[in-house]
From TrEMBL:
PROSITE patterns: PROKAR_LIPOPROTEIN. Keywords: Receptor, Signal, Transport. NCBIfam families: dctP, TRAP_S1. This is DctP family TRAP transporter solute receptor. GO terms for biological process: transmembrane transport. The keyword Transport applies. The keyword 4Fe-4S does not apply. Residues 1-27 form the signal peptide. CDD domains: PBP2_TRAP_Siap_TeaA_like. GO terms for cellular component: outer membrane-bounded periplasmic space.
Amino acid sequence: MKKVLYTVAALLASSCMVLGMANNARAEKPLTLRLGHPMAPGNNVTVGYEKFKELVEKKSNKKIRIQLFPNCQLGSDRVTTEAAQAGTLDMSSSSTPNLASFSKSYMAIDLPYVTSPANQEKLYKALDDGELGKALDKVSESIGLKTIMFSEFGYRNFVSAKKPLKEVKDLMNLKVRTTDSPVEVAVATELGMNPAPVAWGETYTAIQQGTVDAEGNTFSLLNDAKHTEVLKYAMDSEHNYSMHILLMNKKKWDSLTPEQQQIITEAAKEATVWQRAESVKLEKKAWDAFKAKGIEITMLTPEQRKELYDRTAPVREQFAKEIPAELLQLIADTQK
């Protein structure tokens, strides 16, 4: 009888050990977060998320892993943002123009000439540590998402494959690719252009085949996406500033432990600082590439820039009625 009892006890003990080992294995299984975005390899947004991945995995001892899907592998900004909302994707990065269809508040940062490169550091501070960043996070939460990182995208410039852009009037009648953003469409319309919303992944072909004549984007992105192969002319219009915002499904964020949230937050802050510095280098590299390709760049005079500012005033007035006044004021405060 004693022998039987000893055998039973031994079996129970070994079972507990096996169960304990299984529980530990489950507990130690790394958390994998999937991140989709549309940007090309080498782009400033892309390298920023590569740095974010590196920092998260280092700080968590690889207990949190970031799986990156760049270059529209999982679809456009809109597709991945919708997937993040639905919870079928953990994280998505979208440009602010493409977020306009989710909330009009995102249009605030994209309005023409509401920000200037001269005040960029003030804007960064307001986004990272001020009320502007908090306000935009509330916007994200209102659509079921959590803001993780404000990635530098840059100032957009008009470029053309059809005709020289020597003066503001040269933009007239160009068929220009835009995003679905009502702001971009309105800017093009006020400048006498013919806006044609085209998905980013289809834009190279649209320019190459003459479906559209022009587009507005950062030189860095255009260079990384090899649009320099089909473009001939450019002007440094700097007509609006855009960001890429890294967003996580809000329920997913809430399901993370405080330690996991802290690791992701710290990694995002460090990656943001690194990415912005890297963006300056990549934009300079892009300017050099434009010149090397023989693309003719027109540097606008102060008078020409003021002409663009004045011509786009109706856009600012129109959308000021649709965007919370508090948000517009927070942006205006960064330009003082």
